Amino acid sequence: MLEALLMAYQQAFGERFPLAKCEGMMEIDVINTIYYCVQEGVPFEEGMHYDARVTGSPGDKSK
Description:
single chain, mainly alpha, globular
């Protein structure tokens, strides 16, 4: 899923997602961040707040 979202981000914004700025984050949080950016059409900014969640993915505790 992460690979697909990274490709979607690059297609949407014409640049690679800055994974280095997410160092120390859990993978599910990175996935949710990229998902939010792609769905809302908003490029990543450090410290951004979002409500979107990818459910059913590894690490998802919303069940």
